[in-house]
């Protein structure tokens, strides 16, 4: 059996380490830099807007700003069931929906004659949850446009522009003579 000399083992490990290290130390020729493009300065991050808050309770912070429905009264969410006395006409329904909304119904001649006198449909006895604007448009129907006067806080309805009339397609000509053939074994 051959005897391993410690020097031989040490030489083998050294050669292996040198081979591994020389493979990692390869050098490449430096490349010429690509055309230099002038970099724009980094934009400043948007500074967050300061929103004042107040603490309610231990874990609740509330913003000190009006809600969207407080700025735009027609955006307030309502859930309304018509009372028994408001089930007669559309104008009764409109007035009930507008109670405590901050708006009142204006009386235009065309709306009073055509819209307000219509009976209130059973489908409109409960409205919501929806915005006040959507409830008013639902009660009036698609033939009417909602117009608001924010100065006097009045809600008015005007007739919507009439859609262009579509001419009905002409009916195909009817065959003048129809021939009937009796089936064998079947009596009329």
Features:
188 residues; alpha+beta; Phage tail protein beta-alpha-beta fold; 3-stranded mixed β-sheet; two-stranded antiparallel ribbon; 5 helices; extended
Instruction: Please tell me the CATH architecture of the domain at 69-159 by its name.
Output: 3-Layer(bab) Sandwich
Give the mean pLDDT: 80
Using the coordinates shown, work out and report the CATH topology of the domain at 69-159. Answer: Phage tail protein beta-alpha-beta fold
Number of separate strands: 7
Order of helices and strands: HEEHEHEHEHEE
CATH class (first level) name of the domain at 69-159: Alpha Beta
Euclidean distance between termini CA atoms: 119 Å
Helix content: 25-40%
User: Which structural category do the helix and sheet elements fall into?
Assistant: alpha+beta
Largest sheet: spatial strand order: 4-7-6
Describe the sheet with the most strands.
3 strands, mixed
Alpha carbon gyration radius: 42 Å
Count, helices: 5
Poorly predicted runs are none
DSSP strand content: 15-25%
GO molecular function, one term: kinase activity
Organism: Eoetvoesiella caeni
Signal peptide: 1-25
Keywords: Kinase, Signal, Transferase
